[in-house]
Design brief:
The C terminus is likely disordered. It contains no helices and 14 strands. The strands form 2 sheets. Strands 1, 3, 6, 7, 8, 9, 12, 13 and 14 form a 9-stranded mixed sheet that branches. The chain is mainly β.
């Protein structure tokens, strides 16, 4: 698996190389926060009236967000089988899951709800999310985190396109570890 350091904008590609006549570009910027949190900024440019964007709702944990337009990040410590999945909807709803291995769910409750901000213009959709350091996978070795940066875009006709930094399979599979190719070094909290 070839990884790359996360710097600036990371361009997501559509699964199957399909050219989308609705989405022109989809980028994700990843930044460490001073206290070790993970700050993500998803920027989608395209024909937004054709994209099915969920209406604003109460910021709650909700399953099944991937069935609609949703932005996601998969986070693992390099070399560990465990990983966490976070889903962010433009509605303000979110989901967080832990896995002990490929698609093997683990019992886990998030400590702090992610902070989500959403802005929509006629041609651009911007979603920012901050995940608290305490909710990232345990990293006692201090190794880099590997990230799978992904998105599901649903259009008004009901079809979906699947976006990621890399698609290792012939079918969309965001859980495949070969897709976790972005490396992120967590900032350590400063002591006062």
């Amino acid at each position: 698996m070839q990884s790359k350091k996360v710097t600036g904008n990371n361009k997501l590609i559509c699964h199957g190389g399909a050219v989308s006549n609705v989405v022109q570009s989809l980028h994700v910027n990843v930044e460490p926060e001073p206290q070790g949190a993970l700050h993500l900024r998803f920027q989608l440019t395209g024909d937004l009236p054709q994209i099915d964007i969920p209406a604003p709702r109460l910021s709650l944990a909700v399953d099944g967000l991937w069935e609609h337009t949703c932005f996601e990040v998969f986070v693992a410590v390099e070399g560990d089988a465990n990983y966490h999945e976070f889903n962010f909807s433009p509605s303000g709803q979110w989901a967080a899951y832990a896995f002990s291995g490929y698609r093997i769910r683990s019992a886990w409750l998030i400590s702090q709800a992610p902070i989500i901000h959403f802005i929509k213009t006629s041609e651009q959709l911007l979603l920012e999310a901050v995940i608290a350091a305490v909710d990232l996978p345990e990293n006692i070795t201090g190794k880099p985190f590997q990230l799978g940066l992904t998105a599901v875009i649903k259009v008004s006709d009901g079809s979906r396109s699947y976006w990621a930094l890399r698609h290792p399979e012939t079918h969309p599979d965001f859980h495949h570890r070969a897709g976790f190719i972005a490396l992120f070094n967590q900032s350590l909290p400063t002591k006062i």
